[in-house]
Each structure stands twice: as structure tokens, then as C-alpha cells.
Design brief:
- The chain is α/β, with parallel strands linked by helices and 184 residues long.
- It has 7 helices and 7 strands.
- The chain has one domain: Rossmann fold (3-Layer(aba) Sandwich).
- It has a 7-stranded mixed sheet with strand order 3-2-1-4-5-6-7, sandwiched between helices.
- α6 links the parallel β4 and β5.
């Protein structure tokens, strides 16, 4: 069994308060298509969405990044077509808030996946070298098979993106695919 985990594909991370910009905009159609495909097959789909409280003095990101994905703001909305797919398929998609880089840290994601017999996680979203990376590392440590969709992840920096893809493949044994075909 497999699950699609869509990581932080929100307005703030695409073109809002902490934007990846054009690379994140460029993956919109692919992310939306993957969500649609997984929903239509009846596979598990999890929208993992960063949430912060403004001016939280105890959160480690407060001093690292500008305020982003603040609770109750439109910056937490899913971006573009992905929001449309979510709105039309809410009954089949699990929304999960997270407060750390990894989708597993401080959430019930592992319990949810295991209770459904899921052994393979497909990762898409932003940022390739931050939240996608930390989620992949934890998935590896928990024993999941990892598939990263190269054409559905993006980040701020092209070099960091390429480094993360190599790390997924070489250090985590992840399959890196583009339009469903493995890449070298």
C-alpha cells in the first residue's frame, strides 16, 4: 500500500511570505495531477501543512525565517490547482497540520499510515531541501519505502534542490521519479 504526502504546498511557500517562487509555481500542475491520480485509485493522500503562531518565542523557526503559514491566514491555503483538487476531494484527503520540518515530528502520521498498511510513501511539495528532506529522513528511519517525484518538488535554491535529490537517492535509497519513470 502507498500514500502520497503533499508537503507545504501553500500560498506562503509558493508566492507568499516565504516563496520558492517560479520553481514552486512550475510544479503546480504535476502536484495537482498526482493528488488526483492517488485519490482516484483510492490511495491515501495526506496534505501536510506547516502552521505557526505569530511571534512564537519558543519555536526554533522564529529566528530563522520570516513569519509564514501563520494560523488563520490565507498564506496557509493550498496553492492554485492543488487547492481546487483538495476542495473537490476533501472526503478522500487527510489534512494534517505540522509545526516542524518533518511531517512525522509531533504528528500522528506514522500511526495513520501503519494502521492503513502503508509501506511506501510518495513525497511531493516544498521545500526539497528542508521539509521534504526531513520528512524523507524520518520516513527512512521508520522503515518506509520512499519515492520522491522530482517533477513535483521545489525549493529556493537550484543547488540545494539537486543536492537533496542526490541525498534521497544515495543516502536514503529513495526512488526518484519523473512522470512516473525512474531517473538516474
Amino acid at each position: 500500500m502507498k500514500a502520497l504526502i503533499v508537503i507545504d504546498y501553500t500560498v506562503d511557500f509558493v508566492n507568499g511570505k516565504l516563496p520558492c517562487g517560479d520553481p514552486a509555481i512550475a510544479i503546480e500542475n504535476r502536484v495537482a495531477a498526482l493528488v488526483t491520480e492517488f485519490v482516484q485509485r483510492g490511495d491515501e493522500v495526506v496534505m501536510v501543512v506547516d502552521v505557526h503562531d505569530e511571534h512564537d518565542p519558543y519555536h526554533p523557526e522564529t529566528n530563522l525565517f520570516p513569519p509564514h503559514n501563520i494560523r488563520g491566514t490565507s498564506g496557509r491555503d493550498l496553492y492554485g490547482k492543488v487547492m481546487h483538487v483538495y476542495e473537490t476531494s476533501k472526503a478522500q484527503i487527510y489534512w494534517m497540520d505540522k509545526t516542524r520540518y518533518s511531517a512525522f515530528c509531533g504528528t500522528d502520521l506514522d500511526l495513520r499510515l501503519r494502521s492503513r498498511g502503508i509501506t511506501e510513501v510518495h513525497l511531493v511539495g516544498v521545500c526539497t531541501d528542508i521539509c521534504v528532506l526531513h520528512t524523507a529522513v524520518e520516513a527512512y528511519n521508520l522503515g518506509y519505502k520512499i519515492v520522491v517525484h522530482e517533477d513535483a518538488v521545489a525549493t529556493f535554491n537550484g543547488q540545494a534542490h539537486e543536492w537533496a535529490l542526490q541525498h534521497f537517492r544515495n543516502s536514503l535509497g529513495a526512488s526518484i521519479v519523473r512522470q512516473g519513470v525512474a531517473t538516474v
